[in-house]
Amino acid sequence: MKAKIVAATSVLAASVAAQQTTWGQCGGIGWTGATSCVNGAACTSYNAYYYQCIPAPTTTAGRTTTTTTRVVTTPTTTSRVTMTSRTLTTSTRTTTPGTSSRTTTTSSRTSSRTTTTSTRTTTGASGSCPTNFVSTSGKEFRLNGKKFYFAGSNAYYIPMYGPNDFGDMDAALDAFAGSGLKVLRTWGFADFAGPQQDYVTVFQNWSTVPPTILETQEAGLPRLDHVIAGAEARGIKIILPFVNNWGDYGGIDLYVQKVVGSGGTHDAFYTNTAIKNIYKNYVKTIVNRYKNSPAIMAWELANEIRCAGTTLSASSSCNPSVTTAWAKEMSEYIKSLDPCHLVAVGDEGFFNIAGRSEYVYNGGPGIDNAALTALASIDFGTFHMYPIPWGMSWDWGNQWILDHAAQADTLNKPMVFEEYGVTRDSGLRDTYHQQYHNTVFANSIAGDMFWQFGTTVPNWGKSYDDGYSIYPSDTYEWQTFVVDWAAKMASKNT
Ligand SMILES: *[C@@H]1O[C@H](CO)[C@@H](O)[C@H](O)[C@H]1NC(C)=O
Fold first, then answer.
1. Which end of the chain, N or C, is surrounded by fewer C-beta atoms within 10 Å?
2. Which domain holds residue 333?
3. Between vectors from CA 205 to CA 327 and to CA 291, what angle results, nearest 5°?
4. Bridge partners, residue 55, by sequence
5. pLDDT tens digits for range 431-466
6. How many structural domains compose the chain?
7. Residue from 207, 216, 221, 258 to probe ligand 1 pocket by mutation (most atoms less than 8 Å from CB)
8. pLDDT-based confidence at 359, cuts 50/70/90?
9. Which atom of ligand 1 is nearest to 206's Cα?
């Protein structure tokens, strides 16, 4: 998930012959077709690479555009826009120093630093890895010598609590473990340029180039240490991405802006040597820090790589072979540092199939899930799913799951349904969560991780709700789609 849709009607020149149909492409870099939409749809910038005709929100009272502004303590200004055919919800999150009511205490800090380096069996000369590390066997995962089908979730925000909000981290991890969810995906990146603010988590400070990694400062990696150690103590496995395709917490655009400058395109990230070396240095620091921890299920190259990002567009030379070559280089690099943890790409699962016209199947985002997952240094495939912003339907979601289960069958590698959700406002949440779970359960999907886990913790309060979150207070959904579902997926392991 992402700030991937920018509502921007009338951003295009109006010189148009034909009008594009609903859900059709209506602009973006390289686009030469119609740039206006039929009545009832608005040409909307999905990213600089792709604009599409989205049905306009209805004007019925209560179903019109809603904008909320929430001030939270995150290190970047973030826009998240969630669209459905009936609603358009925008939230803007802004960093505002001094608004936090939380207090700083340093008492819990010392204890948290040491736990992640617990005694571990190292990879012996035999090449065997610890059995309490997750491994793969064909299309399945293994853990402690047994099958490891799982339900998990995303909670990107847990390392972002601070300062010294270890009580909040512990409370969130307790709630996660208590739900029965087994795998947590959370952000292993926090790229930031600017003056230090105590409660803003910063793993990599881009005030200088090359950036500085905050290895010891409280605002930096000690926060991630506490999450990894806390997961280890609770038997939670973590999937940890190293950079964001999107602008939240810095992201690829920040790398490009800082290293290449104003003329840089998003995909310079995949080809520029200086950028690749900075990324590798960050990866090396994180991997070496936690390489002995059984809490790490998998390193992930990035969250949702694409040719284009939030603010920077793609160059004309970017295509799936560029992102695949980058993924090969970086995954091989990680394997050279740590041969015992799994490595995944973290892509959205887009296909690049000749003859297909839909954006999600035609390579348009610059991604080829089949090629990425087939890489020898990639252990399992990932896919995400946001049907409505992608111009597809909720029903089609079942097909998308089947498409990736078929990919798992073909490649004989596990496939993880790593992000998806149904917005609360759609009124279809129960219907489609149930359908998707049924499809997952009956097909070759090794792990299922909805976006995202909602919780309420002492200092921070309720976790940010982008419309997709499921909280314990969503009583039926929590019980059915979190607690019972986790138990059902685990039943495959007996
Ligand atoms: C980043 O570095 C700059 C320059 O050294 C410094 O002024 C700033 O406080 C640093 N920010 C963080 C978050 O450490």
1. C
2. 76-493
3. 50
4. 41
5. 999 999 999 999 999 999 999 999 999 999 999 999
6. 1
7. 207
8. very high
9. 1
Q: 28 in a domain, yes or no?
A: no
Residue written as token pair 């490891």: 148
Q: From ligand 1's centre to the CA of 3, what distance in Å? A: 26
Helices (H) and strands (E) in the chain, counts: 12, 24
Residue 283 lies in a domain: yes
Calpha distance 45→309 (Å, rounded): 12
Output the residue whose Cα is nearest ligand 1's atom 12: 196
pLDDT tens track for 25-64:
777 756 678 888 888 888 876 445 567 777 665 333 332 2
* Residue 27 lies inside a defined structural domain of this protein: no
Structure tokens at 360: 């999600």
Question: Is 304 an active-site residue?
Answer: yes
* Residue list, ligand 1 pocket, CB within 6 Å: 192, 195-196, 202, 205, 207-208, 214, 219
Q: What is the pLDDT of residues 62-71, one digit of tens each?
A: 322 222 222 2
Q: What is the pLDDT of residues 273-296, one digit of tens each?
A: 999 999 999 999 999 999 999 999
Each as own residue / partner, the long-range contacts of residues 39-44 (CB below 8 Å, 24 or more positions apart, any chain) are 42/9, 43/9, 43/10, 43/11, 43/12, 44/5, 44/7, 44/8, 44/9, 44/83
Query: For residues 166 and 186, what is the distance between their CA atoms, to the nearest angstrom?
Result: 16
Q: Residue 87 to residues 57, 93, 427: CA-CA distances in angstroms?
A: 6, 19, 11
Residue 149 lies in a domain: yes
79: pLDDT strictly greater than 50: no
CATH of the domain at 164: 3.20.20.80
416 Cα–ligand 1 center, Å? 37
DSSP character at residue 125? T
pTM, rounded to two decimals? 0.78
